[in-house]
Amino acid sequence: MKTGFAIIVVFILLTAVGCSTLKSTDVLNFVLPTDGYTLKHATYASGERHDMDIYLPKAATDKPPIVFVFGGAWREGDKADFAFVAQALTGLGYPVIIPNYRLYPQVRFPAFIDDVADAIRYTEVNAQRLLGKPLQRYILMGHSSGAHTAALLATDTHYVQERGVTARLAGLIALAGPYDLPLDDPEVIPVFPKADPQVVKPVRNVHPGMPPVLLLHGEADTRVRPLHTRRFATALQQAGVPVQVKLYPGVDHVQIIGSLAAPLRLLSPSYGDVQQFLTSIP
Question: Under a CB-based contact definition with an 8 Å cutoff, are residues 31 and 7 in contact?
Fold first, then answer.
């Protein structure tokens, strides 16, 4: 039963000290309504974890789809866990695409970046069937390691260009990502073995002409330090890229994404800031 008690349980789980994953989303997704969108499934390439969910608002919309890349330290996560993100964004009138991608140790960089780029290409080729209209522009959005992937796709355009994607990137929304990737970190080393900093760090790939960017980070985030957002913002500003930065006191790594869900929006202003940013995208 979808009860207030279940919402309280979710609140406790998402505010627990040391919570580093969002498996409490099983409860969160259960308590949220699902009648505001239609859900489609597609397979964008052969092999495991090459499937994606497409959420379409019930009302017709001319707004660009948002490609959401979930986090999980490149080691865990599933598209279904983040239905609450799609519920929030379709409520604003945006189609939402959430692709699965291959994980470490099955693969290493750049396989998961390639997977998301392949999902974008598949969506463009099959846009009429999946979206009901051609894909002319899209927005990238991600959290944690998914924010790193989204930021790298936005700053290093060769991934989509090599696939012949012609749709225009209209904006980037990145939550709590490691944009200045610490290549000496024991968690990062096996995923990005002998990586070239110029290739794997979004802060090094910023260039003029990028679309508007929204960066969100919690000041209480001990999982990915806010310094990553500050450094990325500085690089974007120096390149003349329109960027908005929101740093939230007392907000941690999980709360910043969990608070997109309607029952948890008291945890941080992230939902309102995302909404305001989306309305500003031309």
Answer: yes
Q: Tokens 């980070």 label which residue?
A: 217
Q: What is the CATH number of domain 4-280?
A: 3.40.50.1820
pTM confidence score: 0.93
- What tokens appear for 228 in the block? 């990553």
3-state secondary structure of 25: helix
State phi, psi for 43 to the nearest 5 degrees.
Answer: -115, 120
CA–CA gap between residue 230 and residue 220 (Å, rounded):
14
How do the domains of the chain map onto residue ranges? 4-280
Strand, helix or coil for residue 193: coil
Q: What is the pLDDT of residue 28?
A: 77
- Distance in angstroms between the alpha carbons of the first and the last residue of the chain: 41
Q: Position 41: which residue type? A: H
Report whether pLDDT(4) > 90.
no
Q: Which of 42, 17, 16, 13 is nearest to 30 (CA)?
A: 13
Per the DSSP assignment, residues forming a β-bridge with 161 are none
Structure confidence at residue 124 as a pLDDT band (50, 70, 90): very high
Q: Give the pair of three-digit tokens for residue 217.
A: 């980070």
As a whole number, the mean pLDDT across the chain is 92
